[in-house]
Design a protein that fits this description.
Elements (H helix, E strand, L loop, with lengths): L51 H21 L9 E11 H4 L1 E11 L4 E11 L6 E8 L18 H4 L18 H6 L3 E6 L34 H16 L5 E11 L1 H12 L5 E5 L17 H4 L25 H6 L6 E6 L7 H10 L1 H5 L18 E2 L2 E6 L7 H15 L6
Helix pairs in contact: 5-6
Keywords: Hydrolase, Serine esterase, Signal
Protein name: 4-O-methyl-glucuronoyl methylesterase-like domain-containing protein
GO molecular function: carboxylic ester hydrolase activity
Length: 424
């Protein structure tokens, strides 16, 4: 869909508002085709995986390679130097409950630089090291709080024209309940996703991708990484910075992503095991939902979005999901044995809540290799009945969004698997 369509927050019930209006989208469960999922625990040579050691040595690398080669593209191994500049620090943030810090990341390849702004909150009441949630915001750090000292990202002016409602401070505070997160003893590290890859056609030169050797030279390879790969890479660069902060418990870092960032969070967690909990919220096709169900957002739709989120190789599966040698239950299984959580919304049919649940359920055999519990049944759960096993899940009432209910469930899940933070 080449035309850009702006939608209000109230109307943003689907992961891609313009594409959601397509008349050929299936929302009829009776029209979901019969399908067979690729076997999670059979190697490409036909060998049955029966131990965690086999999974880690043989099957997991095979699955990771499939997603790199045919869905998300290959993340370059070339290191881009980065310098950190602390711009502000406020030990009395959120009414004295937290210490905030704004940090400029300056990436440089020697010829070109890219800047990104990290907003970090750490609770003042926690003794010892602090667990942290990492996650991108969609509308700039300024959108997450009414605090007038929070800076605007440089790239935001590229994607939003002057006077656009997204320039308003606090326009997405509903998605970032900092007070509640801090009160539970967790820190938050957030960055505007446009800082890493501006999500608007024609701005790839302003993305992290443009810093890497070979950028813009010749035709793109089938496995060329795109926006989701870049956003996942950026999440790991946030982790690099957090590792320099003595107060942060690096063994208790969770990543949470919503919608397209739920897709990126899963890919980040699959590649970087420093993320000890991985949370996908309403991520849909190319995220948590099974592709073979062809319900709501499909491979043809999601791989046609511009700027491209997925590598060109994914285009071969338009309308041919059954030919894919992988499906999203395998992506979720790549988190094993780390806890993973999938969240859905009842009215978010575009993201296929049932497909998200089934994907999480069918990831269970990988966790069973470690003696860990997945989801209890192939029958999807009713609303507001979260499961917090090593594979966790909930579906809530409402639309495509991140709500207080979601955050309370994420915090409960983290408490269960990290242990509750120590308060003074």
């Amino acid at each position: 869909m080449k035309k850009t369509i702006y939608v209000t927050a109230a109307a943003f019930v689907l992961s891609t508002g313009a594409l959601a209006q397509r008349r050929d989208v299936n929302y009829d469960e009776s029209k979901v085709p019969a399908y067979t999922l690729p076997d999670l625990l059979v190697t490409q040579r036909g060998q049955r995986v029966t131990t965690a050691e086999q999974w880690e040595r043989q099957r997991r690398p095979e699955i990771l390679e499939l997603f790199a080669a045919q869905m998300y593209g290959r993340t370059p191994t070339h290191a881009i130097p980065v310098r950190y500049e602390v711009l502000t620090e406020n030990p009395q943030a959120l009414g004295g409950k937290a210490t905030s810090r704004q940090v400029k990341f300056i990436f440089s390849n020697g010829k070109k630089t890219l800047e990104a702004l990290l907003l970090l909150y750490l609770p003042n009441q926690v003794t010892g090291k602090v667990p942290v949630f990492v996650g991108y915001n969609f509308k700039g750090n300024h959108s997450t709080t009414l605090d007038t000292t929070i800076l605007y990202s440089k790239n935001f002016a590229l994607v939003k024209e002057p006077g656009h409602p997204d320039w308003e401070r606090g326009c997405q505070t509903n998605r970032w309940p900092f007070d509640d997160i801090i009160a539970r003893g967790y820190g938050v590290a957030t960055m505007c996703y446009h800082d890493i890859f501006p999500d608007k056609p024609g701005l790839k030169d302003h993305s992290a991708v443009s810093l890497f050797p070979g950028y813009g030279e010749g035709e793109e390879a089938p496995d060329e990484w795109q926006a989701i790969g870049a956003w996942a890479w950026g999440s790991s660069r946030i982790l690099d910075y957090l590792a320099t902060e003595p107060r942060i418990a690096m063994e208790r870092i969770a990543i949470m992503g919503h919608s397209r960032q739920g897709k990126a969070a899963l890919w980040a967690g699959a590649q970087d095991t420093r993320f000890k909990i991985v949370i996908s919220n309403d991520s849909g096709a190319g995220g948590a939902a099974l592709s073979r169900r062809k319900y709501g957002e499909t491979i043809a739709i999601v791989s046609g979005i511009k700027p491209a989120w997925f590598c060109p190789a994914l285009n071969q599966y338009h309308g041919r999901e059954e030919a894919m040698p992988f499906d999203q239950h395998q992506l979720i299984a790549l988190m094993a044995p780390r806890p993973v959580y999938v969240a859905s919304a009842e009215e978010d049919r575009w993201a296929d809540p049932k497909g998200e649940y089934l994907s999480a359920y069918h990831a269970g055999p990988a966790y069973a290799l470690y003696g860990l519990k997945g989801l209890p049944s192939a029958t999807p759960l009713p609303v507001h009945q979260p499961i917090h096993n090593h594979i966790g899940y909930h579906i809530r009432a409402g639309k495509h969004d991140v709500t207080d209910y979601d955050w309370q469930a994420f915090l409960d899940f983290a408490d269960r698997h990290f242990g509750k933070p120590n308060a003074r």
